[in-house]
Amino acid sequence: MEPSEQRIKIAVQKTGRLTDHSIDLLERCGLKLTRSKDQLICYGENMPIDLLLVRDDDIPGLVGEDICDLGIVGLNVVEEKRLNRAAEGRAIEFKQIYELDFGHCRLALAAPDGTEYNGPESLEKTRIATSYTGLLKHFLEENRVDAEPVYFSGAVEIAPKLGRADFICDIVSTGGTLKANGLVEVDTLLQSEAVVIQTQQPLGEAKQALVDKILQRLDGVLQVRESKYIMLHAPKDALAEIHALLPGSEAPTVLRLDGDDDKVAVHAVCRENVFWDTLENLKAAGASSLLVLPVEKMLA
Ligand code: PRP
Ligand code: ZN
């Protein structure tokens, strides 16, 4: 194994919404991982890359302070950090590079069922419990509302029951937590999903090459998730129309069909999902023998 300073460190959420997807994504990039006994580190067996399993709120700091080279974290956490740093007159020290299309959730305002809400002005002179004081203050300022954020480090949803707040501002994913606490969502402050962040500190040549490699693979994994390989038979005179119907495809391969001079076979990689209505439109344009296959790997 390389000395630890030569290995790439990726900060990943220890337990929560992003954990399984984050690890799965890196495994699909070809990384083979073993967990340490204390479950806090996943060692890369076949590449000098280790995952640090940490609280999501700590990830921007770990990447910003160059303890980790990359991190996978919710946009909600990134934006909160950005605003907190800005309030202290400091810039953030990491760059955001990819949206990962998992870990979807939103930062929302909620209140006990029956609370009147007709827009942000209904928050005037209320108390709002949240762990996201940065994003909440920003929202209140933008809407010129005078309300009092009440900081809770966790279990925000019990604040109204305790008489500590009139509203809460918290992450909602399935809505199960709100429902279980008799709360109703009334407004959305931010739509969030998992993103990759990278340190802005210059890395050594070898490390940079490895980061570039893993990012390129990540890009490939993200692309194939939506990509499909489509094969069909098309009448020669409908080729232009059929090509135009193929979603997000570059130049398709056109092949001669043995014993048929009127039709050709068309093969294409579609970089968007191929839905039933696309297939039906292709069929209506004269295509037949349609076949859609998932793409396993892709390297641009
Ligand atoms: C959020 C929020 C709720 C839960 C809501 O916590 O604080 O507890 O998710 O999800 P639901 O709508 O699916 O019920 P999060 O997972 O961000 O955990 P953390 O605050 O410990 O980071
Ligand atoms: Zn958290």
Tell me what you see in this structure:
With 300 residues, this protein is α+β, with helices and mostly antiparallel strands. It has three domains: 129 residues, D-Maltodextrin-Binding Protein, domain 2 (3-Layer(aba) Sandwich); 88 residues, Periplasmic binding protein-like II (D-Maltodextrin-Binding Protein, domain 2), CATH 3.40.190.10; 67 residues, Alpha-Beta Plaits. The protein is built from eight helices and 16 strands. The strands form three sheets. It has a seven-stranded mixed β-sheet with strand order 2-3-4-1-5-12-6. Strands 9-8-10-7-11 form a five-stranded mixed β-sheet. Strands 14-15-13-16 form a four-stranded antiparallel β-sheet. It is globular. It starts with 7 loop residues before the first strand and ends in a 6-residue tail after the last strand. The chain binds 1-O-pyrophosphono-5-O-phosphono-alpha-D-ribofuranose and zinc ion. The site of 1-O-pyrophosphono-5-O-phosphono-alpha-D-ribofuranose has 12 residues, from β10 and α5.
List keywords for this structure.
D-Maltodextrin-Binding Protein, domain 2, Alpha-Beta Plaits, 300 residues, 7-stranded mixed sheet, binds 1-O-pyrophosphono-5-O-phosphono-alpha-D-ribofuranose, binds zinc ion, alpha+beta, 5-stranded mixed sheet
| Main sheet: strands, sense, barrel | 7 strands, mixed
Query: What is the number of strand segments?
Result: 16
Shape: globular
The number of helices is 8
Instruction: Give the strand content.
Output: 25-35%
Instruction: Say what the CATH topology of the largest domain is.
Output: D-Maltodextrin-Binding Protein, domain 2
Please compute the radius of gyration using only Cα atoms.
Answer: 25 Å
Kindly, what is the distance between the CA atoms of the first and last residues, rounded to a whole number of angstroms? 30 Å
